[in-house]
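Structure first, sequence second, as always.
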């Protein structure tokens, strides 16, 4: 979001009709504190067919909404993966397995807080066809969700798992492992695009 006009448009549009319900949901999670980032209007809201789940928004002050056009490494890589898969930003709702900002390492109990929130989010997405879990924390939360809330698993929902787009997402001392992990990320995003287009 280096373009100030684009950034202003995303911040000003966070109550646009298609993202207002999800950002009202964020307000409830915030409970009066700016600890959960809003969803940028570039993306879909509860109407999106694709839910992208990363680990957490990390620490520090909130600089803006969740958006694939942010300036951090994870956002930039995810944006390229989406483009390569032919997925429009409006088709995807970005989310975090632990949606609150944090400065201390997360405990098992902390991650558990995200379980019910993720289920509540999913229950409000009538067009959801694909959940893309990126990184081990997101996969761990999903495993607990399936155990505690089995109703979220349906025949019409595909759940894909891959490596995080973060700076350490594919890190490994063996270059061949890095290549395989990089390829897996690309393939999973392409598969998500194929599912949305009815090609899988």
């Amino acid at each position: 979001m280096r373009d100030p006009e684009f950034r202003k448009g995303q911040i000003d549009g966070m109550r646009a009709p298609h993202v207002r319900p999800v950002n009202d949901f964020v307000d409830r999670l915030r409970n009066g504190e700016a600890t959960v980032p809003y969803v940028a209007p570039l993306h879909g809201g509860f109407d999106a067919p694709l839910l992208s789940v990363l680990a957490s928004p990390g620490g520090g002050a909130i600089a803006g909404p969740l958006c694939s056009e942010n300036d951090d490494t994870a956002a930039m890589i995810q944006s390229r993966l989406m483009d390569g898969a032919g997925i429009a930003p409006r088709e995807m709702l970005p989310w975090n397995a632990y949606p609150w900002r944090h400065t201390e390492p997360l405990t098992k109990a902390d991650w558990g807080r995200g379980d019910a929130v993720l289920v509540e989010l999913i229950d409000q997405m009538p067009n959801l066809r694909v959940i893309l879990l990126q990184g081990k924390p997101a996969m761990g939360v999903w495993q607990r969700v399936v155990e505690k809330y089995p109703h979220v698993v349906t025949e019409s929902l595909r759940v894909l798992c891959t490596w995080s787009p973060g700076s350490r997402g594919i890190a490994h001392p063996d270059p061949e492992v890095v290549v395989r992990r990089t390829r897996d990320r690309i393939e999973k995003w392409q598969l998500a695009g194929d599912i949305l287009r009815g090609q899988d």
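Margin note: The chain has one domain: 4-196.
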